[in-house]
Task: inverse folding
């Protein structure tokens, strides 16, 4: 049996993906979101979102994700839970193969987001889930009243430090420079938490463990002095890498692996758009991902009405 044909298939159900789905479904396009796990992407792992308008008290990221999915469903957008394993994007209609079904689409919106970057220290992968974590809100509760270290100096590291300082006995914030790149809004609260200790100009060079992590060696980059910090958990917050491997070779990427699409979200392939954290852009936030979704839907709709009608239903 020939796979079902949709006007638009959105690969990835984060805030960008479900905003695109809301707009395309509301515009009357048949819409499918392919999501491998659960709606929201990285946003769903955020405890408190304060910079998405409309929520004066802030909102939990998972809750916001569910609301975004419901908003799109209200207009008929469907979700298929499965992992996309192969995309044929240069053909018409486009073909999406998942680990649990195949679909055809007149237009495809790539919304695969980004994943946490690894530190690259020996033993890191083996200790994942045994003391090494990339998500403070997912795993923080395992370290209640314990000692943890966070590596990074961006907004994620700052937000993680604040979140973990409420749960943990002690939090080391290890950063490779002597200033954070995190937004100013985090700085005062970070300084005022008595159980947060900053470890500046430093990098983690070794992980100590028995069955689980027991500590980290930290090297001061200026003095080369090494010190061992005992800790039960290490939270890695050193940025993200775009999830673009699946369509590399079809869609043009930047040298850092982001999809090379401008503010129209159009890629080099007709009928293929890229939105959110996987797109090359200056600000990666929930609201900019959502904005991309709205823009992509506009051009997807235009593509379907101008060219998509020639595709056999
Ligand atoms: P980020 O802004 O790219 O920061 C990564 C941090 O990790 C930087 O401080 C960087 O150091 C450090 N780093 C990078 N590679 C490293 C390595 N190999 N070893 C040690 N340190 C390393 O990443 P992010 O904090 O995850 O944020 C990602 C995006 O999400 C950003 O656009 C951010 O604004 C957004 N975000 C926003 C919020 C919010 O608005 N509330 C919350 C979370 C995330 P240097 O500073 O020396 O480069």
Result:
């Amino acid at each position: 049996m020939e796979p079902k044909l949709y006007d638009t298939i959105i690969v990835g159900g984060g805030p960008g993906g479900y905003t695109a789905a809301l707009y395309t479904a509301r515009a009357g396009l048949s819409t499918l979101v392919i999501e491998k796990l659960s709606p929201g992407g990285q946003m769903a792992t955020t405890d408190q979102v304060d910079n998405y308008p409309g929520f004066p008290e802030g909102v939990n990221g998972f809750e916001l994700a569910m609301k975004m999915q419901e908003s799109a469903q209200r207009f008929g957008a469907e979700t298929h839970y499965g992992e996309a394993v192969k995309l044929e994007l240069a053909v018409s209609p486009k073909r999406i193969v998942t680990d649990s079904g195949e679909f055809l689409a007149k237009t495809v919106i790539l919304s695969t987001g980004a994943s946490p970057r690894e530190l690259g220290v020996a033993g890191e992968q083996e200790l994942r889930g045994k003391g090494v974590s990339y998500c403070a809100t997912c795993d923080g509760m395992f370290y209640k009243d314990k000692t943890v270290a966070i590596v990074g100096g961006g907004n994620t590291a700052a937000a993680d430090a604040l979140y973990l300082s409420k749960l943990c006995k002690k939090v080391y914030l290890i950063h490779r420079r002597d200033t954070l790149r995190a937004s100013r809004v985090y700085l005062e609260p970070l300084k005022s938490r008595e159980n947060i200790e900053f470890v500046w100009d430093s990098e983690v060079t070794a992980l100590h463990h028995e069955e689980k992590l027991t500590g980290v060696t930290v090297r001061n980059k200026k003095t080369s002095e090494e010190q061992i910090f005992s800790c039960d958990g290490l939270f890695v917050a050193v940025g993200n890498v775009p999830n673009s491997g699946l369509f590399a070779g079809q869609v043009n990427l930047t040298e850092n692996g982001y999809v090379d699409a401008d503010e129209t979200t159009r890629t080099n392939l007709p009928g293929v758009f890229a939105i959110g954290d996987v797109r090359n852009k200056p600000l990666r936030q929930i609201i900019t991902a959502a904005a991309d979704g709205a823009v992509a839907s506009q051009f997807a709709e235009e593509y379907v009405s101008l060219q998509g009608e020639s595709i056999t239903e």
Observations:
- Helices lie at 15-26, 61-73, 136-139, 155-167, 184-192, 286-306.
- The CA atoms of residues 124 and 132 lie 7 Å apart.
- The first helix runs from residue 15 to 26.
